[in-house]
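> tool_call: predict_assembly(chains=two)
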Amino acid sequence: MNKIIFAFAILCSGGLKAQTKSNFVKENFTKIDTTISMRDGIRLYTVIYVPNDNAEKYPFLMERTPYSAGPYGDSNYSNRIGPDTNLMKEKYIFVYQDVRGRYMSEGTNLEVTPYISNKNSKKDVDESSDTYDTVDWLLKNIKNNNGRVGLYGISYPGFYASASLPAAHPAIKAVSPQAPVSDEFLGDDVNHNGAFFLMDNFNFMNYFGKPRTGPVKDYGSQIFDLNTKDMYSFFLNLGPVKNSQSEKYFNNQSYIWDEYLKHDSYDAYWKARNIRKHLKDISIPTLVVGGWFDAEDLFGALETYHAIESQSKNNNNMLVMGPWTHGSWAGADWSKFAYQEFGSNTSNYFQDSLQTLFFNYYLKDKGNFNATEATVFETGSNEWKKYTSWPPQDVIYTDYYLNNNNGLSLKKGSGYDEYLSDPSKPVPYTNGIFGRRNNEYMAEDQRFASIRPDVVLFETDVLSEDITLSGKIIADLLVSITGTDADFIVKLIDVLPDNEPNIKNAPKGFQMAGTQRLVRAEVIRGKFRNSFEKSEAFIPDQITKVKFNLNDVAHKFKKGHRIMIQIQSSWFPLVDRNPQKFMHIPEANESDFQKAMIRIYHDAENASKIVLPILQNAVN
Amino acid sequence: MQKILLYVFINFLVPALYAQNADSSWFINNYIKIEKMIPMRDGIKLFTSIYLPKDRSEKHPILLERTPYSCSPYGEEFDSYYWTTNTYKEYSREHYIFVQQDVRGRYMSDGVYEDVRPYIKEKKNNQDIDEASDSYDTIDWLVKNIQNNNGNVGVRGTSYPGFYATEAALSGHPALKAVSPQAPVTDWFIGDDFHHKGVFFAMDGFSFYSNFGKPRPVPTKDYGGGFTTPIKDNYKFFLEAGALKNLATMIGDSIKFWHEMYKHPNYDSWWKARNARVGLYNIKPAMLWVGGLFDAEDCWGAWNSYKAAESQSPQSNSKIVMGPWYHGQWSREGSFLGNIRFESNTSEYYQQNIEIPFFNYYLKNKGTVSGIPEASIFFPGENKWKQFSKWPPDNVDYKNLYIIPGNKLSFDSVSSTLKKTDLQNGYLEYISDPAHPVPYTEDVHDKRTREYMTDDQRFASRRPDVLTFEMDELNEDITLAGPVIADLVTSISTTDADFAVKIIDVFPDNFEYPANIKGNGKSYPMGGYQMLVRGEIMRGKFRNSFENPEPFVQNKITHIKFELPDVAHTFKKGHRIMIQIQSSWFPLADRNPQQFIDIYKASNSDFQKSIIRIYYDVNNQTKFILPIIKN
C-alpha cells in the first residue's frame, strides 16, 4: 500500500496525458478548508474544491485518505484534483478528507478501521459512519450540489472507498475502490496466506506507522534512518523479525508494527479488519479496479469484486483488471512494463473509456456507461477482453500434474523432488541488488531462481497451441518436511522460446530468448494449510497436503511457449524467513532457524498438481 | 585466448571505416606492403605480410608477430591494427618494419598445424622443426632479405600469439633482441584457457575451438564459422548439453584436437610436452612479460611464464608487468573493468612508460629502460602502480588466515581463540548438485563475460551451496602480493569433487565512487560490493598429483592444498576480506560428476549430488595462506 506515494507522485507531477495548465484548478475552483463534525464530536479535516462556474449543479467526488488531504490552507491549491484529468475538466465538487486520527483530523486512527455492524451509540464510529456524516454535512452545507456523491481511492484510500459501501448514505451513487486494501492477513500488503511481507511493511511503517499527539500537517522524519542499497543483505543481517523492535529500529514506537507482530494468525484482530464480509447487498454502482502486476493489493481488487458480486443480489458491480502495477492506471502513460509492450496506452484507455464515463453517468446522468461486467487485459496476447462474468463462464479448471524429470502434464508422474531450504540462504525474490522493493519482480525472468538448488521446477512440453488462463490458480501439493513448519511459494511462469527475437533497444547483454517470465506467484505459510485461525505443526517426514489459491490471471501462453511451475520455500526479503519450526515466528530467535529438507511428491497416490483455469474456445 | 578473435574480427571489418581518418591515411601514405612465402629449413613456406616504412633516413628495426589467427587482410589492403592500436601508432611514427606471419599450418602458410606445438630441445636434423625453429628461420630470412633493416628484431604477441612470442624467444637467433609475450598461452592443463588445475573450461574451449579447430586441408584465407546454437543462454546450453562426451558429438569428428584432448584426462607426457615453460632456459633476448590480473584466459600463463624464466634462466633479462586488465586490455581503455574503477588510464601508463620504451631501447637503441623495474604491478584497491626488484617481493609475510566459527576468518587459529567445547561441530557443509551448478556470474549471457573476474559475488553468497567466510572490518590496509594458497580440510560423501576458492574484497556499506572517477557509465550499487579479486578451481582427484588422480574415500577427512594465481590487491581500511568456497563454477568450468571417473567419458547418468564438508576444528583447520606486504 505504500506504493500509493509513488502513485501520488504521478498524479501530482506535470506528466499528464493532456497537458493542463498548472493553474487550471486555481482558475476554475474555489478551495474551502474546513472541519466536519462526526456524530461523536470528532472533527475531520476536509478540503473542498468547488467549481466557480455555477451554471449547473455538481455532484461530489470524494477521496478519503490517510496520506493527507493537503495542501492545507484556503489559498494553497493542488495542481491536479480528482481521479483523472477528464473528470477534473468535467468539474465536480472534489472533496479530500483526512481520515480519523490522521494528519489534520482529530481522533484516533485504527489500522484498517474495523466495521461495526450494529452501532449502539454515537460512540460506535467507523469509516462507514464517518463517510455518512461527511456526506450528510456536504449535502447540507455546500451550495449548488446536485445531491449525489461518488467515492474513489487507490490502495489504502481504496479501502476507505469500500468502507463507504455498507450502510451507505443514500446520496452515494457511485464508488470505485481501486487496488483496495481488503484483507491484510490473507492477501494484501501485510500477509499473504499468513506469510509476513517483511520488506514492504518494515519500510512503510517506518513512515506511516509514526505516532502523533494531535493533528499535524507533517509527521516529520521517519522513525529511524535506513540507508541501505541492498535490502537482501539488510534484512538477512537484521535477523529474526523480533530484532526490528531493537532501539535502532522500531523500538515499539509504531503501534501498527506492534500489532502486526502481535497478531501472527487470523485472529479476531485480523477478522475485524476484513471489510469483505460486510460488502453485502450492495446495489450502489461499483467499479473495482486492479492491476495484474500490483505487488500490494492485487488480492484486494479481485476479492473486493468477488465479495460484492457473491454477497449482493442486486449489485451493479464491475471489474477492471489491467497490466498495471499498484496505481499505474492513474498515470499518464502505461504502454509497457518489465520488457513487455502492451501495444496501447492502457491507463489512457481506463481513464477515458471507463472511469470518466462511469462517474459522469452515475453522478451527472451524462452520456452512457455500458461497460461489460469485466474488462480484463489479457497478458501474453496483450489484448483487452470483455466478459459477462469473472472468471468467464467457459473456463475448465484443469489438473496439471507435477512429473518426474521436471515435467508438467495432464498425466500423473512418479517419485518426488526434494530440496534443502536453508533460512541463512533464502531464495531472493528478485535478481540483482536493490535498495527498495521493485515492481518488476511480478513479471521478472525467473532464470535466476531456476538455477538454484533450492528451487524445483516443472514445465510442460512446448505448447502446440495457445493456452489461455482466465481465473484463479490452485496449488495442490503433497509434501513432507523434516521440520515442523515451512513456507511454500508457487510460481506460474511463461517460458519464451529459445528463438524469441530480442526486444528493440535491448540493454547490453539482455536476451529475451528463453525468458522465464513470472505470470503469478503466491506464498503460504505451511502451518496455516488447514486453517488460518488455528495453525498446525507438520509432523516431520509425513506426507501432508498443502493446498492454496494463487490470485487470478488472464494470460495467454502462446504456441511455442511452455508453462512452468516453480516451487521454493523462501522469497526474501519480500517475505520474512520461516524458522522451519512450528512457533510464533515474531518471537523466534536466531537459534530457532533451522534447515529443512522439503519434498514435493508427484507419484500416482501423492500426485501434486496445479489446477489451471483454461479458457475454452478463446477467441483471438 | 579467444579475445584475439575479436581483434581479428575487427581487423576484417573495420578498415573501410578507418580508411578516411588521419591515422590511416598517414600509415597508408608512409608504408608499403609486401607479401612473401618464407621458406623454413624443412622446405615448408610460411605466408608473411611485411609493412615497410618509406622512410630511408635511417635503418629500421623489425617487429614481428606470429599468429594462428591470420595475418589478414591478404593482398593489397592494409591491416588497420597498425593505426588503431596505440602502441603500433607509436611504432609506425618510429618507422618500424612490421611483419605478421601465419604460423605453420594455419591460413595461408604451408605445413601441418599443431596446437601449442611441443618444443624440441635437441634438434637432430632439418625435419626437427618447432615454433622456435620457424621463428629462427623467419628472423634469419628477414634480416637478410628486407632492405634497410637495422639488424634488430623484436617479437610481440598477445594470447595465442603470446605463446608464439615465447617460442620465438627460444630460437636463439642473434638478431632477436627483445620479446614481449603478452598473456601468453603457457599450459593448457594447469592454468590457461582449456583447463585450470585439471578442470575443463568447457565454455571457453567450445566456443573458441569449434571454429579454431576446423581442418584445413589446403591453405585458406577463411576457416568459416564455428558451432552455432539458437540458445542465447550459455548456462542453459551447457547444462542441457550435459556430459562432455555430448559436446564432443556436437563439435564433430573433424575437430581433431578436441578429441585428442579428451584422450588425455590427466597431466601426462602429452600435456607436459605442451607446457611452454619447458623450453624457458638460456633465454637470450630481453623479455617483457605482460598480463592482466583479471585476464580470464591467460593470467596464469603471464605470471608463471615469468616465474619459469626467472628460475630456469636466471641470467636472462626478464621483466614483468601485471595490470588490472582483461585479456588484452593493455592495448585498450584501461580506466575500469566491469564495475571496478582504477582512477587512471592504466593501459596508457603501460604503453607510454613500459612497452614503447622497451622496444625503442632494445631495437633502436633509443631512450632508456632504466625506468622499467623488474616488476611493475598495479594494485587495485589502492589503485597504484608499485615497482619491485623481485616478484613475489621479499618483504612479504605469508600469514595463515583461518576459518573460525560463525562463518568468520581470523589470523588467529581456532585453537588459540576458542574452547574445545566450541569445536564439536567444527565444520560447515553444503550439497553440491550437478543439476544446479553455481553460476560463475549473474544474469543470462550468450557469451562468457570478461567482467566476471571483478564481478560482485553477492549473487553467489546467497546460494546455499556456496560457503562464505568473512573477516571483521579492517582497521588498516592489507596488501597482498603473490600467490594465495588454499589449504582445505574437507570430506565428501562421494569419490570426487571440485573446489573453487574465491578471494573477495567486500566494500563498505556506504561505498560509492566519486563522480569524477571514470567508470563504465552504468550505475551499480557499490555499497557492500563483493569484488572478486581472485578465483581458482581445483579438481579434487588431482589433489596429490596431476599425473595420477586419486579417488576420495567417502566421508573421510582429506586435505586439498592448491595455489591460486598471484594476487596484487590492497584491501582498504574499512573493507573486509571474504573467501567463498563452492564446488562448481558453471559453465566456466565443466561439472564434476562427483564420482571418480574419466570425466571425458562420463555419461549424463554418472552425475550425482555430493555433500561437501569444510572443517575448522582444532585438528582439522582449513586455512588460506596470504602473501601480505610488510609495512
